[in-house]
């Protein structure tokens, strides 16, 4: 079966530094793939390449067989890739509901004149958006219920802001969801909860590519794991295969540690 | 609007800054009551003139105020909603005014019907807005302000020097009064007179109707996906484009729309004042419209309307108070505006009637302090979990 996302020999460098070096991998439908690697190994650059913030210098990125490499971020989003950010990027002064509604921008179509006149079609669309937002926010039970939806995003707790970013990314029914460190900065109980929610997203049929440092979460949700170091993919496979790969151990702990485990 | 309404009727549980008893009572009154009160006051004001309580001079101030209300509503779209600083906004006003002057004056002996003139004036300003947005929208912040400032000056200097078309510094005189139904048969001339607008009172109501209609349209737009897209771009452009908003298109729409509103206002202004000259389109006028938006509350539709009325009525108030010294007043006008803006920015940066999103932005807290608050919220959340919330 055709993979949802396929990277073919993608390279990107900043000046002389090869941030991503001939990276190839694929994500299949309804699969959760995690990218791990030490800081500066090119994980977030990979995400920025996929989501259109950077243009690859060589290679191609295919979404369901169609190239999205070098497209503008908004067009990549239109094709069905939505993402979250490592450093939270919510619309802090807008409320929870509005943040989710903005996420639906590309899948709604009311024009300026229809919106000004608030035609029946616009009302219907707004109602549908509102219902959809309730459905998405409902995936995080107890977190965004009732009056909380009218709170500005900045007033939320850190964990809830991360959840809200996921909710905003889900608003457009993406073909592929990119999660950049979804549990960063969370305590064990919270990261466990998010882990369960990510599993639930798979049950709902979403395809997820995620960057994560929390090995507990990586182990808990990933179908496959890709390890990167210095822009190169050094290992790929199930969690156990990757975690025991000498190159991966070396990347994280250094050469002597790798020798010791071997 | 349905979604937003809930928040405006005081259910917003967000921590607000400096909640006083007055504010709490004020927020308990539903939004539509304020709107109704505003309309009643605005519509009732000329009656004071009719019964002889206020002078006609005040009615004239009223008409100009309302024209500036249109302008500040227009500028609010780019400045308040989308967060683009435009310092040459008056240029679009000039486009509308000169288009009207050319299409309805003895200059070329053309007298197009009122509705056609006002539509064409709006469109001309929109085209100007589109053209200026092509090169400028890729610029950010300060650069955009400088380019629009230069644009405003270029337009003004062009008007001064394009004598064959604009009569240069002398301006265009004798602009015909609007006829709501043009080209009626001679037999109907008696009736037609009813539809000619040439008294301040008539202009007042004409512009007031335009203001009310525009305010409703813009409120709808603000609460639509387009308004939210503008706000999102202002808040975090990178996140907005990654959420599927085409930044250039959304910004262009905001610039073109605001230019169109300025053109529309310019057309009404040209009709009302009969004479237009480059003096009406100085850089200072752009600054004054910016002041109106800042004073009233960026992003807030009722706010910018109030801001425009206050800044237009203030000079007249002071002029009357100053009495005999009125000739000196002009010297101090800008000083007073300046002090007013400085005071506002220090004590109430969100404006007189703030928009709720912008209010938060204006009071943005120190990030470290916020992080500490969040840490304590963490603990709260753990507690919540135990309660099974």
Textual characterization of the structure:
The complex is a heterodimer of chains A (262) and B (389). Chain A has 262 residues and is an alpha/beta fold. In chain A, 39% of the residues lie in helices and 22% in strands. Chain A has two domains: 169 residues, 3-Layer(aba) Sandwich (Rossmann fold); 83 residues, no CATH class. In chain A, the strands form two sheets. In chain A, strands 6-7-8-3-9-10 form a six-stranded mixed beta sheet, with helices on both faces. A four-stranded antiparallel beta sheet of chain A has the order 2-1-4-5, covered by helices on one side. By secondary structure, chain B is mainly alpha-helical. Chain B is 73% helix and 1% strand. Chain B is built from 18 helices and two strands. Chain B has a two-stranded antiparallel sheet. The N terminus and C terminus of chain B are likely disordered.
Give a concise summary.
Chain A is an alpha/beta fold and 262 residues long. Chain A has helices spanning 43-50, 73-79, 96-103, 112-117, 120-137, 158-170, 188-203, 215-221, 239-243, 246-253, 255-261, and strands at residues 5-14, 17-27, 32-36, 58-63, 66-67, 81-83, 176-180, 208-211, 224-229, 232-237. Chain B is mainly alpha-helical and 389 residues long.
Question: How many beta-strand runs of chain B?
Answer: 2
- Separate helix tally of chain A: 11
The CATH C-level class name of the largest domain in chain A? Alpha Beta
Biggest chain pair interface: A-B, 59 and 50 residues
End-to-end C-alpha gap of chain A: 36 Å
The overall average pLDDT of chain B, rounded, is 82
């Amino acid at each position: 079966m055709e993979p949802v996302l396929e990277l073919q020999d993608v390279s990107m460098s900043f000046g002389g530094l090869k941030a991503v070096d001939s990276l190839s991998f694929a994500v299949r439908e309804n699969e959760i793939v995690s990218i791990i690697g030490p800081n500066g190994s090119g994980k977030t650059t990979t995400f920025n390449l996929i989501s259109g913030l950077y243009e690859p210098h060589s290679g191609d990125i295919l979404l369901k067989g169609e190239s999205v490499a070098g497209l503008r971020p908004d067009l990549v989003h239109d094709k069905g890739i939505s993402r979250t950010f490592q450093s939270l990027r919510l619309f802090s002064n807008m409320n929870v509901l509005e943040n989710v509604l903005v996420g639906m921008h590309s899948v709604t179509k009311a024009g300026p004149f229809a919106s000004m006149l608030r035609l029946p079609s616009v009302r219907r669309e707004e109602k549908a958006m509102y219902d959809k937002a309730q459905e998405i926010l409902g995936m995080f039970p107890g977190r965004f219920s009732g009056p909380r939806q009218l709170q500005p995003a900045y007033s939320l707790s850190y964990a809830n802001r991360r959840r809200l970013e996921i909710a905003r990314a889900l608003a457009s029914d993406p073909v592929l969801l990119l999660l950049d460190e979804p549990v960063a900065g969370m305590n064990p109980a919270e990261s466990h909860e998010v882990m369960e929610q990510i599993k639930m997203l798979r049950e709902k049929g979403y395809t997820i590519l995620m960057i994560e440092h929390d090995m507990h979460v990586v182990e808990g949700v990933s179908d496959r794991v890709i390890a990167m170091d210095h822009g190169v993919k050094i290992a790929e496979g199930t969690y156990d295969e990757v975690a025991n790969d000498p190159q991966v151990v070396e990347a994280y702990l250094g050469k002597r540690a790798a020798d010791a485990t071997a | 609007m349905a979604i937003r309404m809930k928040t405006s009727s005081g259910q917003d549980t967000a921590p607000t800054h400096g909640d006083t008893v007055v504010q709490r009572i004020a927020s308990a009154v539903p939004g539509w009551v304020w709107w109704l009160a505003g309309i009643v006051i605005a519509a009732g004001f000329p009656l004071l003139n009719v019964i002889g309580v206020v002078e006609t001079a005040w009615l004239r101030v009223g008409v100009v105020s309302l024209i500036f209300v249109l302008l500040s509503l227009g500028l609010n779209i780019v400045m308040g909603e989308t967060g683009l600083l435009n310092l040459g906004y008056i240029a679009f006003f000039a486009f509308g005014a000169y288009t009207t002057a050319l299409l309805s004056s003895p200059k070329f002996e053309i007298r197009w019907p009122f509705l056609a003139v006002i539509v064409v004036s709006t469109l001309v300003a929109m085209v100007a807005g589109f053209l200026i947005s092509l090169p400028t929208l890729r610029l950010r912040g300060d650069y955009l302000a400088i380019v629009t400032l230069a644009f405003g000056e270029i337009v003004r200097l062009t008007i001064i020097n394009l004598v064959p078309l604009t009569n240069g510094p002398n301006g265009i005189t004798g602009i015909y009064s609007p006829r709501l139904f043009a080209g009626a048969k001679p037999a109907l001339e008696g009736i037609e007179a009813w539809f000619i607008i040439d008294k301040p009172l008539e202009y007042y109501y004409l512009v007031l109707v335009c203001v009310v209609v525009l305010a409703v349209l813009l409120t709808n737009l603000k609460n639509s996906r387009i308004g939210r897209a503008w706000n999102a771009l202002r808040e975090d452009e990178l996140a907005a484009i990654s959420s599927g908003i085409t930044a250039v298109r959304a910004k262009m729409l905001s610039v073109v729309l605001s230019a169109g509103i300025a053109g529309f206002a310019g057309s009404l202004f040209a009709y009302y004042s009969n004479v237009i000259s480059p003096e009406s389109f100085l850089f200072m006028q752009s600054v004054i419209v910016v002041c109106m938006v800042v004073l009233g509350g960026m992003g807030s539709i009722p706010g910018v309307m109030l801001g425009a009325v206050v800044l237009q009525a203030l000079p007249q108030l002071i002029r009357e108070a100053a009495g005999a010294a009125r000739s000196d007043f002009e010297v101090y006008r800008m000083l007073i505006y300046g002090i007013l803006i400085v005071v506002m920015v220090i004590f109430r940066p969100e404006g007189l009637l703030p928009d709720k999103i912008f209010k938060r932005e204006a009071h943005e807290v120190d990030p470290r302090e916020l992080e500490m608050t969040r840490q304590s919220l963490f603990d709260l959340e753990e507690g919540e979990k135990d309660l099974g919330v």
